[in-house]
Amino acid sequence: MTARGRLRVDIVACEGVAICAHLAADLIRTDSWGYPIIDDAPLTRRTERQASAAVTACPRRALFIVDGGSGLEPSAPQDIRDDHANPVPS
Amino acid sequence: MTAGVWLAPDAEAELPMLERPIHFYGGGTSVTELAPHSYRDHLDRFGARPSCRGAAGAALIRRIEEAGLTGRGGAHLPSAIKWRAVRAAAGAAGSVIVANGAEGEPDSRKDAALLELRPHLVLDGLVCAAETLGARQLVVWLHENAHAARSAVSRALAERVAHGPDEPMIRIAVGPDRYLTGESGAVVQALSGGVARPAFRIVPSAARGVDGLPTLVHNVETLARVARLARGEDCSSALVTVCADDTHVVLEVSTSATVQEVIGRVTNADEPAAVLIGGHGGTWCTSSDLGKLTLDEADLRAAGLSLGAGVLAVLAAGTCGLVRTAELADFLARQSTRQCGPCVFGLASIAESTAELARGGWRSRRDADRIARFAAEIKGRGACGHPDGAVRMVGSALEVFADDVAAHRRGRCLATGEHL
Description:
The complex is a heterodimer. Chain A has helices at residues 19-23, 45-57; strands at 6-9, 28-30, 36-38, 63-66. By secondary structure, chain A is α+β, with helices and mostly antiparallel strands. Chain A has one domain: Alpha-Beta Plaits (2-Layer Sandwich), CATH 3.30.70. Helices cover 43% and strands 14% of the residues of chain B. In chain B, the strands form 2 sheets. Chain B has a 7-stranded mixed β-sheet with strand order 2-1-8-7-11-9-10. A 4-stranded parallel β-sheet of chain B has the order 5-4-3-6, with helices on both faces. The interface between A and B is medium-sized, with 25 and 24 residues.
């Protein structure tokens, strides 16, 4: 069986839009302030579809799926930190 | 204010770094009869720094591991693990070593004392790390208004350039005087050209840190201990700041000393009602909780505590623990760098609820349940450990000051005797 990875949130980029909680209701609930609390369990065939829908829909691009193994590398090729990196003063 | 009775470190063969306690009264600057070490004093006292290139570096990492050296900034991670990670990740571009002296804990003065009085020990440790790990960039990271530390380090660097052996260049960099400026992710982000605030990261900075290079961020005390270990000396002591009676006293103590003994060296007052261990984001304890507990981190961990940034803050007699907790919770909420929702909103909610408790505004069991729910929601969800510290401190207060909570709910404060 291949590891399917886990859903993670970049909590700095997240603005609590909470579309994800609607699209991935089995994986994500919101806290008292509307920010996502994500189920840390590995994704299943069913939750994987929900997870990718949430990743695609997030307007802050704050969600991503990490590989099943190390949990250290993002599955997406782009550096997820680029989105909210602080501008370098020029 | 107390004069503080100084007892020599418990029968140790170890040569202390600070021979006597350092008193800080009021705002900040140290009042001490202990003279800062010039480079010559430093050599007379500790001897020349041994080279750590090649096999000597590998031996140093082994010694760090055997001595069980952990970071002294707050998290107490085993240093050897970080060193090995940086060494494994460092390529031709080299690595970055940061001596972190941005002492954000409001009650901590140990890093200031060390930098102001024994700057060469810290710089020795920095160079030892750089030689072992093949670093090209060496940085001392400070708060921008830590003028005394900054001038002490500048003077020490000038002495080393003029009289010392050939060493890599060390630069001083500074960040704003905020609680989280010394958080390692904030240090890495600032030194990479960004703003000094914690960052969300999936790859640890030991693998990809400043400008994408493997980066070792060590508290200045940790590096001073590296300098001692490189000389083959023991390092079983710790620098702590005891905060009591409006005075901050920095002491070098054996980690086999008990917390109570160390506090007793500074204050002559009766047994304190409560002590906050670790810093503002630490844990409240009663004297009976402390018992014979020593400063040894493993001992503290087993009791659910941590020395954190080395702060032992005594609750002043006649002060309500809940009022003090509300002040601390408010401080921690305001020190959020306002990046992570659970921290921004959660700490504000907790601070508000704690303030209400201190004012006697809690009327039912539901108030306690609400704060517990907030705490459970916040824990582990920030990009850094800041919200976890706030939750820990408030959670421990509700246990330690349980009698006060009950009294406040009935409209009475036990510490002051006032009606609320």
